[in-house]
Amino acid sequence: MKYIAIIDGQQVEIDFQTRPGGVEANIGGRVYVVEAAAVEAGVFWFNWDNRSVEIAITSAGDGYSVAVAGHQMTVEMMDTRAALKKAAQHGHDGVVELKAPMPGKIVKLLVVEGAEVNANQGILVMEAMKMQNEIKAPKKGIVKKIAVQEGLAVNAGDLLAAVE
User: Fold this and answer.
1) What is the mean pLDDT of residues 127-153?
2) Cα atoms in the 13 Å half-sphere on the side-chain side of 108
3) pTM, full prediction
4) pLDDT given for residue 124 in this prediction
5) Which residues, including other chains, have CB under 8 Å from residue 120's CB and lie 6 or more apart?
């Protein structure tokens, strides 16, 4: 499953698969195979690379407060679709990357690189699960990059376009 984690304000992509007795996680491009177990409600034990780590997690507003080895951090987790929706609802400075919310196929490009777009203007059409979805600009700006072409199959989390 692919997720976006916002850890103390930093966005990190996480893709993980459960395995018997643990988890295999790709975090920011690095792969970790971790033995895991729930100790009690909100407390988890992980063994990674012969290191034992206990993590305490409590709800905190829209996210979680996570304590690891005496360090406290705020973490917000969301799937790629929720992250895309959240990005569209907030003003952004700089470049905003639009990523595929699920596996699919690019049906039609609606703009070209360098085009000026308004917030919520269609950038491309993607077909997923036999439905066509218009991927829209999260803000007013200029399309800096179109990373796909018509007919291309994409995976969840793949870069589609970037708007500045």
Assistant:
1) 90
2) 7
3) 0.49
4) 94
5) 88, 136, 137
